[in-house]
Amino acid sequence: MEAQVGRSILETFLDRNVELPHICYHPALGPIQTCDTCMVEVNGELVRACATPIQEGMQIRTKSVQARYARKEAMDRILKNHDLYCTVCDNNNGNCTIHNTTMEMDINHQSYPFQTKPYDEDVSNPFYRYEPDQCILCGRCVEACQNLQVSEVLSIAWDREVPRVIWDDDVPINESSCVSCGHCVTVCPCNALMEKSMIGEAGFLTGIPPEPLEKMIDLTKAIEPGYRAIFSVSEMESAMRASRIKRTKTVCTYCGVGCSFDVWTKGRDILKVEPQMEAPTNQISTCIKGKFGWDWVNSEDRLTKPLIRRGDTFYEASWDEALDLVASKLTEVRKAHGDDAIAFISSSKCTNEENYLVQKLARAVMHTNNVDNCSRYCQSPATEGLRRTVGLGGDTGSVSDLAMADLVIVIGANPAESHPVLATRLKRAKKKHGQKHIVIDLRRNGLAEKADMFVSPKPGTDLVLLSGVMKYIVDEGWEAKAFLDEKVDGYADFVKSLEKYTLDYTARITGVPEAVIIQLASMIHEAKMVCICWAMGVTQHLGGSETSTAICDLLLLTGNMARPGTGAYPLRGHNNVQGAGDMGCNPVYLPGYERIDDDAVRAKYEKAWGVTLPTVKGLDNHEMVDAIHEGKLRAMFLQGEEMALVDSNAHFVREAFDKLDFFVVMDVFFSKTAQYADVILPAAPSLEKEGTFTNTERRIQRLYQVLEPLGDAKPDWMILQDLANRLGANWSYESPREILEEMASLAELMKGVTYDRLEGYSSLQWPVAEDGTDSPLLYTNGFPFPNGRARLVATEWMEPTEFPEEYDLHLNNGRMLEHFHEGNLTYRVEGIKEKIPTTYLEVSPELAKARGIETGSTVRLVSPFGQLRLRTVVTDRVHGNEMYLPMNTSDDEQAINILTSSKADATTHTPAYKELRVRMEVLEKRGENPMTRFNFRLGNPNPQPGVRVEEKWQRSDYVPVGEVGQRPNRG
Amino acid sequence: MAKATTSIVRVPEDISAQAKQQIEQALVENVDGVVDALALLQALEERGALPLVRALLEQGDEVLKVLLALMGRDEVTGGLKNVIGVAQFFTSIPPEAMSRLFEAASGGIAEASNVSNDAKIGIYDALKALRDPDISRALSVALAFLKGMGKALGETASE
């Protein structure tokens, strides 16, 4: 047999589809060595196939008496810990590892009787349970928690008389540091760890009340005619389940990482989310939202009928009434005030196809370039920085490059909470392979806790810090000379622009000591592969585009571009922010970032669409709000964006909505923004439609329809087409497939994108050549500029927004792991709401002492634009006069954007959400802690190297499976 | 000039009309099946099966409890075990061997029916009979059976 060097015997077998029993081994986790079911004989010795590397000339016997006997003994020990009642078990769905292995080994009788464990089932967590009686102690869950998710919560207490899995130092699951990511449940080889949504729902007989169920299990066992018969029945039952449980692949909508997984449904009930190894970005990884956060789909609050406003009340209406009204009103406004009196805002939560249609509707039907999307609120500055220096507005590599790097710098991003699955790859690389992390942030975030370096510069001074580091690198002669000569323009001018960033100046402006700046530069210099991740902490500033440019400069200067394991990663916040921009929902770009002011480009689209396109530059989100106030913009069509909460200076935005002549909102819920609408159109969320999303890696992935739209709700693409046709468009798309393929036929970047190439879990990372070749790593064949070379671009530091002196505290904001955005979805998931019922203000111990507040105090925060009333949590995650408020709330008393200003990045108009100063009034000194005791941040993680199988082997009652005497007393 | 409002007037949904429409449509689409099913229902009703099944289903959990309590008793589980055991016994015999044995047995029965009830056999007759090839064949089969059974008994005792 041919074998790949470094693979284990088991992996080699599996690679070649040779069957060999195994239970604790999982391809995402590697060998765990607890179950002993993969024993084989190698050169006469019994070894574990999972942990023995395959070698040249090895004699491997799988069917020797010794090996077979050892495997049977191992399986007997497992069944001693696991009651086989498959037919009445909710995990009997054809994918139960224990069931399948027992069958595969053709085990008919249990040699050791099943023994219960002296522990109760733990049902405290709202999403999953642990049943010790069914647990075989394989440790997959522990390995997943310790070394894949790296939350370091689970371990096996091998020192107990009866070992079990424990959370933290053995507390109820819901009071531990468990983040409810679901990794443990996904890898559990049986029903010990199980989604609560499955229990009593998956099987035909599993819904029987506990008492008779127990009796049935007893009866089955009493008459037990051997497992073969039991298995035949349970196999039949499992096959029957397939007729009513549907498994559908979808793509998550909770962040830009782009996890994909199967959703199991029975009717409209979501039984579980099951991630798959073939998912390109996440494999079996999920976070709490992706794994457990979908119940809102069936919320009673869903919009299910079009609503039309008359006076101060909305009335339910038919689609015809609603769309006729929208069409006639838009036409009216257009006639009275011109094409550019109407604007469109698309949604980063909607599909590529729907985004394509929004900009086509704006341009081809309504003849305006007033179309934008919410990447304006987050990553437009990053796109700008990338376009200036390297050419394309997307991550330069893939998540796999991040995992491969030996140094990852995370600046102004909090991936542990905002991009949880991507963060697991970094945490794993650090724990298992020694990857180094530098975190540059105001706040000691999840990754900062364990980073090799945590640097906390003064707010708004990142560009100075980066420039100081670059100047030091150049002064030391550490720049990548060969790379620069070969691939980069503008070096001389760029170096000149760094002159003022001496160590002394940099230290003075940023508050970062000179020694730390030198250390930073040295670490970058010493690393062979460097990646930089950044997000809103960089972009949401007056100089967001400038700092993003400086990040790209630093990577170019040190040669960390266009190689595996290197590059620039602006972490996209929402699932399809990348796609919304790619599809041309932008005032200056058509799909594929082709400029609307380029005559040849316009001619191409005019020909394809059979219309003349507008040449006037459109308005971006930010300009739209101003234009409404100025009376220039009279009507707006907004797709699924909660602008009244998520745009900065919310009061100002709402006053603008008041002034619109006509306002259409498409959404899934009756949002705060919808309250200002004239017509509300009920849209279908991702689970109720087909389409594609593009993640932060530029990866295009298909989602399939899981559920029928609720009530009269409709997928956005259908609504858009119905409206466009009322406005004379004459579109006839039968499915999203046709829309995407029309786009691909036009956008040079997407030439080879087809639905067939995206079948199932297949994906494509743009640019995609006509033959379907995609680009996981960019620029390996040069940069997309006329001479094929990248550009070092000089930057200018902009001092952060000034506030009057009375506003003496800095207020930062960001996300919480558990909630998404303003929370319209996640506060409608009971379990999430139980854990995190509200946002809260993080205050440093120093500030708390100075103001006499404690955890649970109530304070009022006042900015020049508004005021909030918040409960406080005292924590050293923040320091000095810097506070932090998670943005996840739809409560006007707590929403950050009531306080933020209308200031914005000079180039892209991304609001400077992160430049905010406030003053604080203490309202109540004492009060209840706003964090419930179910908040994982209050737990005490229990880091372990892994499952510590050696401790199992050292137990006095452990006898190696190969050493059990010939047929000892086993009664 | 729209001020924010949360007031919504909903058209009361006519759930019963929707349901009727759904049912009517299903009827039209499945005429044959529906008519047959109705006939089946009528037959079940006439024979009293329908009320019986209905009562069983309505009292499902209670009936199940009683049934399980009954079936959980040692005698019953013992009996069930025996039934399954017998079934497994028969399935474990290769059908060809089985039919050979049955044919042999019926041959034996035919021969035996010719022997009168008061027939006697002496030691000498018995020894002489052993030399008969037919009897010898039957005896070796019987001995081989005893050997196999004894071996299996030994194995189960040590398990």
Could you please describe the fold and organization of this structure?
- The complex is a heterodimer of chains A (971) and B (159).
- Chain A has 971 residues and is α/β, with parallel strands linked by helices.
- Chain A has four domains: 19-38 and 61-296, no CATH class; 307-378 and 577-731 and 738-767, 3-Layer(aba) Sandwich (Rossmann fold), CATH 3.40.50; 387-570, Dimethylsulfoxide Reductase, domain 2 (3-Layer(aba) Sandwich), CATH 3.40.228; 809-938, Barwin-like endoglucanases.
- In chain A, 30% of the residues lie in helices and 15% in strands.
- Chain A contains 31 helices and 35 strands.
- In chain A, the strands form ten sheets. Chain A has a seven-stranded mixed beta sheet. A six-stranded mixed beta sheet of chain A has the order 31-33-32-35-30-34.
- In chain A, helix 15 packs antiparallel against helix 18, helix 15 (462-475) crosses helix 19 and helix 15 (462-475) packs parallel to helix 21.
- Chain A starts with 8 loop residues before the first helix and ends in an 18-residue tail after the last helix.
- The model of chain A is unreliable at 966-971 (pLDDT under 50).
- With 159 residues, chain B is an all-alpha fold.
- Chain B has a domain at 19-58.
- Chain B has eight helices and one strand.
- Chain B has helices at 15-29, 31-46, 49-58, 60-71, 74-92, 95-113, 123-131, 133-158; one strand at 8-9.
- The longest helix of chain B is centred in the C-terminal third of the chain and has 26 residues, at 133-158.
- The termini of chain B are far apart.
- The mean pLDDT of chain B is 80.
- Classes of the chains: A alpha/beta (971), B mainly alpha (159).
- The interface between A and B is medium-sized, with 38 and 26 residues.
Sum this structure up briefly.
The complex is a heterodimer of chains A (971) and B (159). With 971 residues, chain A is α/β, with parallel strands linked by helices.
